[in-house]
Specification:
Strand content: 5-15%
Number of helices: 10
Strand order of the largest sheet: 1-2
Structural class: mainly alpha
Radius of gyration: 23 Å
Number of strands: 6
Distance between the termini: 36 Å
Number of domains: 1
Order of helices and strands: HHEEEEEEHHHHHHHH
Length: 284
């Protein structure tokens, strides 16, 4: 893995999103395992230990995949690329900003100020672009965030509505505007803090669920965001090969932990296409 040299966020929006994420993830972890869990299962019981272990396993995946997404350099910075003398290869372009050739599926990011191999998008919650080498980690990061929020939502319903008395209309105001109610002094109680975390987890569930569906659809169709907009399906090799292109040869292990090594099929520069695969199949 090539590591990024500059990990600092490039914009204020990136910095704010990362700070929020770095605060809310451990706070939610504390809330679920040290506040909610003991209220639902006796401490030391088999179910308590099971959920505590499972919750910690989910956190390890969130933190690990986030870390690899941020650390991994998926740009063209470390590559020696041709200067485009003579006839330009199909799919290659000259990037004016980088003053270098850009391989197929690579696009320049104005925020990162570099061309990204198989660029999907710039993620404000990681402060970096998602491309060929960190695509796997980003997808697992989002998926495990979604799993965590669904898991939390299920048990939080028992916890929250078992201790908070509903009073119309103030309860609706506190539910819809939990952060404002806490920040502006309408309610400084511990229950209001718990309600705020409950609402944040619901919003996170909707957001990460939408992202998971969208990005995994891209994976299974062999496309990145830009190619989907352009309705470009030339890199769709079938769902199994498409998954390998993102998660590597041992794709079945990458779903468990980010620390399993899974060598990527391609190098981020040359790409197989559906047309070339069909020609090879017919030639056999």
């Amino acid at each position: 893995m090539n590591f990024r040299k500059n990990l600092w966020p490039k914009t204020a929006g990136d910095a704010a999103s990362i700070v929020f994420l770095l605060i809310i993830v451990p706070v939610i972890y504390w809330f679920e395992l040290w506040v909610v869990l003991p209220q639902l299962f006796p401490s030391g019981s088999l179910l308590y230990l099971f959920h505590f272990t499972l919750g910690t396993f989910i956190l390890i995946n969130i933190v690990g995949n986030f870390t690899y997404t941020v650390l991994c350099d998926t740009s063209t910075r470390s590559l020696i690329l041709p200067w485009g003398k003579g006839k330009m290869k199909e799919g290659w372009r000259f990037c004016v900003s980088c003053e270098a050739m850009a391989p197929p599926r690579s696009w320049h990011c104005q925020t990162c100020d570099i061309c990204i191999l198989k660029r999907d998008h710039h993620c404000v919650f990681t402060g970096c672009c998602i491309g060929h080498f960190n695509h796997r980690y980003f997808l697992m990061f989002v998926l495990y965030l979604f799993i965590a929020t669904v898991y939390s939502f299920y048990y939080n319903n028992y916890f929250i509505w078992g201790r908070i008395e509903f009073q119309f209309p103030m309860s609706i105001v506190k539910l819809i505007f939990p952060l404002a109610s806490f920040a502006f002094g309408l309610d400084y109680s511990t229950d209001q803090l718990y309600l705020m975390l409950y609402v944040i987890s619901i919003v996170g569930m909707g957001f990460t669920g939408t992202l998971s569906v969208y990005h995994f659809q891209l994976v299974f169709t062999g496309a990145v965001a830009h190619e989907r907009v352009k309705k470009n399906s030339k890199y769709d090799l079938g769902w199994r090969e498409n998954v390998k292109n993102v998660f590597g040869e041992r794709w079945y292990l990458t779903w468990i932990l980010p620390y399993f090594e899974s060598k990527l099929v391609g190098d981020g520069i040359t790409w197989r296409t559906a047309d070339s695969e069909n020609k090879n199949w017919k030639g056999k």
